[in-house]
Design goal:
Mean pLDDT: 95
Order of helices and strands: HHHHH
Shape: globular
Distance between the termini: 37 Å
Structural class: mainly alpha
Radius of gyration: 16 Å
Helix content: 55-70%
Number of strands: 0
Amino acid sequence: MFDGREFLELARVLSTATPGTPVTVRGSEATARNAVGRACYAAFGQARTYAIQHLGFASTGTAANHGRLAAHYRMHGMQPIATLLRDLRQWRNECDYEDVVPRLSTVVSDVLRDAAIVIHRL
């Protein structure tokens, strides 16, 4: 079972780094879960920006944007992007909120691949 205090430890290490300098972190379940979250947010952020600039998406600045953004891509005939965004959100939620994430290393690999696909296709 995941110990959420690992997130606090990781946050402390990251927050004390001097900007522009390398940070060394201990590989852990927290770093793997955090990698999932950051990769998902990278894809979401790029997809949101693209949709605002090119597809007339109106961001609400709320958590509802995730579902709205996927629906917006679907509505514009970009089903593969919509599906990837939905899947990424599900994986991120699992890594953020579940005590046990089966096959975490596989999830990390899949998320990194899918986030890169979203960004590359935009």
